[in-house]
Design goal:
By secondary structure, the chain is an all-alpha fold. The chain has a single domain, classed as Up-down Bundle (Methane Monooxygenase Hydroxylase, Chain G, domain 1), CATH 1.20.58. The protein has 7 helices and no strands. Helix 2 packs parallel to helix 4.
Length: about 200
């Protein structure tokens, strides 16, 4: 009887973590966006090494991910959480993990980087990545996609490759990691849209 009453209570009063999980994910994406922004600025300025703002952004990203993982653990044991919910959440976590690892690889490669790429083309891609992550965070928070036209990250990446063809040497790390970033953020956007549509229904 107690179990039946508990389930009835959950149905009548939506579960706590179910309300919080999207916000936790949005907060992590905000933190990742800030960190990537710090890395991108230093790349375009050819400024190797760390800085207080970069270090703070890195720490904030780690804290946000830890908070999300704790929220996901609580969400997983709530009665109304389904296997499909957890699979969708795991997919978003995996995409965000690929993104942040690529961003960290870019940071690690700054000290060995040479100005043999187009700062303008990279800045365009980085800015559009930031816009897409902001879109994802807002969608997670309010469930509304809005009317803004999303940038074409794959086009931006192709433009970067074409712009860099004029240089004698190719920036292999930048090209490979921005390709990973493009793929992961595009996938994440699709996953967030599906997640938000489900939870808004």
């Amino acid at each position: 009887i107690g179990g039946v009453l508990a389930l009835a209570a959950y149905a009548a009063w939506p579960t706590w973590e179910r309300k919080k999980i999207s916000e936790s994910l949005a907060q992590m994406l905000d933190a990742y966006r800030a960190y990537f922004g710090e890395v991108a600025v230093r790349y375009t300025q050819f400024a190797a090494g760390s800085s207080p703002s970069l270090e703070a952004a890195r720490v904030a990203g780690r804290v946000a991910r830890t908070n999300l993982e704790a929220s996901a653990e609580r969400f997983s044991v709530e009665p109304l959480t389904t296997a499909s919910d957890m699979s969708s959440l795991a997919g978003m976590l995996a995409s965000s993990h690929r993104f942040i690892h690529a961003a960290m690889s870019l940071e690690a490669g700054m000290s060995a980087s040479a100005p043999n790429f187009s700062p303008e083309a990279f800045e365009q891609l980085a800015g559009d990545v930031s816009k897409t992550l902001l879109y994802c965070a807002r969608l997670l928070r309010n469930g509304q996609p809005g009317t803004a036209t999303l940038p074409d990250l794959r086009h931006d990446h192709q433009r970067l490759l074409e712009a860099d063809a004029a240089f004698a040497g190719k920036h292999a790390l930048l090209h490979s990691e921005t390709d990973r970033i493009t793929n992961s953020v595009n996938t994440l956007r699709e996953q967030v849209e599906r997640w938000s549509a489900r939870f808004a229904a």
